[in-house]
Specification:
52% helix, 3% strand, mainly alpha, 126 residues
């Protein structure tokens, strides 16, 4: 889907979110970098990734300021489940939140790509 920011491609429109594929998110999905596979690399045994708390806080903050209502986000996540069905939770929740934010113009694909690079650079220095 070609939204205002150009990040979402295709023409599928859900009731709550643009359902088109996002190239950046597709590439992340295809990397298969789930917590379940990454945690052993750092000898971590926590069942949930440390970023899950930040994900939940981000969702709460977006709702609190009126940028993304919690119920609307959940409906959008449900609509996007088929798009990201190959990814387990909480990674799927993270990808769907990014997808929703991109499709609504809350963040651009370039901004998101920059943040991903920053996080990867930090991880590589560990």
């Amino acid at each position: 889907m070609s939204g205002a920011n150009g990040a979402v491609q295709g023409q599928a429109e859900g009731q709550y979110v643009d359902l088109g594929r996002v190239e950046l998110l597709e590439s992340l999905q295809n990397e298969d970098q789930t917590w379940e596979k990454l945690a052993p690399r750092w000898s971590v045994t926590q069942p949930e990734p440390p970023w899950k708390v930040c994900l939940d806080a981000t969702c709460d903050a977006l709702s609190a300021v009126g940028a993304l209502d919690s119920l609307e986000r959940r409906h959008a996540e449900d609509e996007l489940e088929a798009v990201y069905s190959e990814i387990p939770n909480p990674e799927r929740q993270l990808l769907t939140l990014a997808h929703i934010m991109l499709s609504r113009g809350l963040v651009t694909e370039d901004e998101l790509a920059r943040q991903i690079r920053t996080v990867r650079d930090r991880l590589e220095t560990v």
